[in-house]
Amino acid sequence: MIASIHVSAYHRILLKLSGEVLAGEARFGIQPERVLSLANELAEVAASGVQLGLVVGGGNFFRGVSAAAQNMDRVAADHMGMLATVINGLALQDSLEKKGVATRVMTAIQMNQVAEPYIRRRAIRHLEKGRIVIFVAGTSNPYFSTDTAATLRALEIDAAVMAKATRVDGVFDKDPLQHHDARLYREIGYQEVLARALRVMDASAVAMCRDNRLPIVVFNLTVPGNIMRVASGEQVGTLIHS
Questions:
Q1: Contact in structure between 136 and 88 (CB atoms under 8 Å)
Q2: The domain spanning residue 23 has which CATH number?
């Protein structure tokens, strides 16, 4: 495990990753160098004493078959997306364990030969023992996004914050990839995010965080060291709170 001199501000964090971050520039599949780089950062955070849960999406695989899925039953398509998250979770586990980090993959869809079934108390016990827990297969229910799954798991494990990793620096008043004059919010309330329909995460996930007073940090994952900065309580990206 990587040694660290950082002092964490948060005892337990739920980190939401999109599947695309594992694909790197390829935007499809898994790029080993990108996964290894991410594993290095996660290992450093774990070494600082932060208890770390991860929820990873499946867009790096499912986006490639989304055209075919358009004519599919929604439930079948959603189940395909859940299975894509399992592939990503196993890839992350492999890279983390090569760094010497104890890791568990817990799945909402039972597949005992591949991963542990998700059991809340067992997940918390893994975290208390210093293991990184990777939650896959969403909630096992169709019509729920990985944003909602991440919020649910964050609340269930009593995380201090949910950190949403993106490709931009935080929450803007409009899409910064399309508008050069987009304004970055350093802090914003849940209600304003919902009222202005800011595309941070699913509205149902934001509303769940609001109702349970779970703060959200939206930050740029492409900046090296940002995960540790978030864990250390530095002002990185945008803080969404009451």
A1: yes
A2: 3.40.1160.10
